[in-house]
Amino acid sequence: MVLTMGQEALIMLLMVSAPVLGVVLVVGLLVSLFQAVTQINEATLAFVPKLVAAMAVFALAGPWMLSILVDYIRRTFEAIPSAVM
């Protein structure tokens, strides 16, 4: 039962983090490509667009992420009595 709960937690972690990580990865790749083409080496140019993209993804997918997390926590709390007995 513990291994099943751990497996569910890892799958839920991947589901919740995938949209943010994917968008930040794509934005970072585009910014790096832009920096390589223009030969601009500015640290804030690499950081700020990724931060803005992550905030946009959280704004758009935040309710879905929160519902996934709340559902997992609810199922975990409901499974406590069966795990004790």
Automatic annotation (TrEMBL):
<feature type="transmembrane region" description="Helical">
    <location>
        <begin position="9"/>
        <end position="31"/>
    </location>
</feature>
<dbReference type="InterPro" id="IPR002191">
    <property type="entry name" value="Bac_export_3"/>
</dbReference>
<dbReference type="Pfam" id="PF01313">
    <property type="entry name" value="Bac_export_3"/>
</dbReference>
<feature type="transmembrane region" description="Helical">
    <location>
        <begin position="51"/>
        <end position="73"/>
    </location>
</feature>
<keyword id="KW-1003">Cell membrane</keyword>
<dbReference type="InterPro" id="IPR006305">
    <property type="entry name" value="FliQ"/>
</dbReference>
<keyword id="KW-0282">Flagellum</keyword>
<keyword id="KW-1133">Transmembrane helix</keyword>
<protein>
    <recommendedName>
        <fullName>Flagellar biosynthetic protein FliQ</fullName>
    </recommendedName>
</protein>
<keyword id="KW-0975">Bacterial flagellum</keyword>
<keyword id="KW-0966">Cell projection</keyword>
<dbReference type="GO" id="GO:0005886">
    <property type="term" value="C:plasma membrane"/>
</dbReference>
<keyword id="KW-0969">Cilium</keyword>
<keyword id="KW-0472">Membrane</keyword>
<dbReference type="GO" id="GO:0009425">
    <property type="term" value="C:bacterial-type flagellum basal body"/>
</dbReference>
<dbReference type="GO" id="GO:0044780">
    <property type="term" value="P:bacterial-type flagellum assembly"/>
</dbReference>
<dbReference type="GO" id="GO:0009306">
    <property type="term" value="P:protein secretion"/>
</dbReference>
<comment type="function">
    <text>Role in flagellar biosynthesis.</text>
</comment>
<comment type="similarity">
    <text>Belongs to the FliQ/MopD/SpaQ family.</text>
</comment>
<keyword id="KW-0812">Transmembrane</keyword>
